[in-house]
Amino acid sequence: MRELQALEGAHPELVTPDSPTQRVGGKPREGFVKVAHSSPMLSLDNALNEGELIEFDRRVRELLKDQPYRYTIELKMDGLSMAAHYRDGLFEQAITRGDGQVGEDVTQNARTIRSLPLRTAAQMPRYEVRGEVIMTRRAFEHLNAEQEARDLPRFANPRNAAAGGLRALDMAIAAARKLDYYAYFLFVDGAPAFDSHWESLDTLARLGFKVNSHRAICNGVEELLDQYRKWEAGRDGLPYEIDGLVAKVDSVAQQQALGWTAKAPRWAIALKFPARQEQTVVENVGVQVGRTGALTPVAFLKPVLVGGVTVSRATLHNEDEIARLGLQIGDTVLIERSGDVIPKVVRVVAEGAERRPFQMPAECPVCKGHIIRHPGEAKYHCVNTSCPARLKESILHFSARPVMNIDGMGDVLADQLVDRGLVSSIADLYSLTLEQLTSLERMGQKSAEKVLANIANSKANPLPRLIAGLGIAFVGERTAQILADSFPSMDALMSASEDALQRADEVGPKVSKSIRAFFDEERNQELIRRLREAGLQFTYEPKRKDGGALAGKTFVITGTLPTLSREEAKAKIEDAGGKATDSVSKKTDYLVAGEKAGSKLDKAQKLGIAVLSEAQLLELLGG
Question: What is the tally of structural domains in the chain?
Fold first, then answer.
């Protein structure tokens, strides 16, 4: 590798995209580009027991009118689906499954997967390989050992760790996860490349892709059941997690005849294994604080081996779930673990001799701030925006484009700022220095200068954006605008009672209680004080909307407009007295549609709602 690096350093014109040196490199990105799939990546229907598998086979037999057919059986690996595109044998692009129609371009991260060929011997000008990105048990255990050594939380399961690695904005994270790729479809122009699925798998293996070696041909449902029983018993001996098998009708012509439902093919089924269960004792119950400030009770268990994995914790979700289970500390419980979920407590098996009830803490266990349980919600939340457990999420929310619009403040930068101790409150963003930013990994001087300029520019944002950026529960962009119209200074909003808050349009008891709880928290008061000192906008002059050109009219904006951003179009509508909402309903007067308008346009047309172009909107505005 070093010799190759030296040669390419001396002769950069010889560097090719499939060179091993190109597996890892480049700067972190701030997001992923959305890409449409060549054909839908549909999910599979599930058979949860042998009876449902037999019923699936009966439907296949009837639809094929008793034609001879056979199944290809593959292990259902527990990972993340990905489509890899090749041109003239060279790897070109990788796309996650996404919603099945559109995924995310993860090409650079996919390059770090060493089992994904960058060059193949295929003669086809263009082809697509679909498969599963996974982590082996060994790689997962190594990752969690590193997490513990760095005093960081363990990952719940290999699937989540693999998905997080593939979608990380920093390629180095993807490379460090030691991901694997197993291929299971070969497509040309969005359709199967061969008449037989088995032939496609053999071809993929010859091209250098990893294809699961435990695949098999089954003639009839009894052979399917034999395979199901075999792997349910033998899955713990595999080097990776599986949560079942996949059975596919092997003939592509018969697949076409069987067709698809709206969500899944009729010619394939996922044969899911039952979740593994074991009994153990609840030694204690603690509370963890999530990135949104939600407090979740967690059972600390006497360690027990479940499906080859030692389990010592299980989620209890919330107080209501604990009450439903009738669980207390010291009880013996039945826990359940399936391949793709965090272990959970199913039921209490036996009450402990010295059992004692769990009590939710009176304050946040991380920052000692106020906690609140909103009406109608099951979980408590920490209201301190600067709580270390939720600080990264607070920074990203505050910096988002529709809020304070600090371009360049993405996940990678937020992580480093918090992990290095440079930011312990949103207000610290306004005291960052060039020297501090350039000391961070992959942050050059020009990038640092740009981020600092964007932070400085955000000070000019009006009060509604600042209110939205504080992260008050139930206060989004629209509610923030309503609050600023009713309370045209931060001081007026901070001192308003719940009754006064409810006199504002669309602010009810739930929202007013949340606002009051936020401003009653001393740490949030300190945050407001520091933001004031930083020079942000704390007063606001409400725009007169009575009698505007669009007074009383409700608009929804969808798609990409020719010249206006959605935020700009929304501002123009509201300045003219109109109301801009996110969802189409019978109360919507106009839909402003741009390129790639999607489902909102379809719904508006069905409801008979007037559809406007950007030019027509501007004409209504008189501009």
Answer: 4
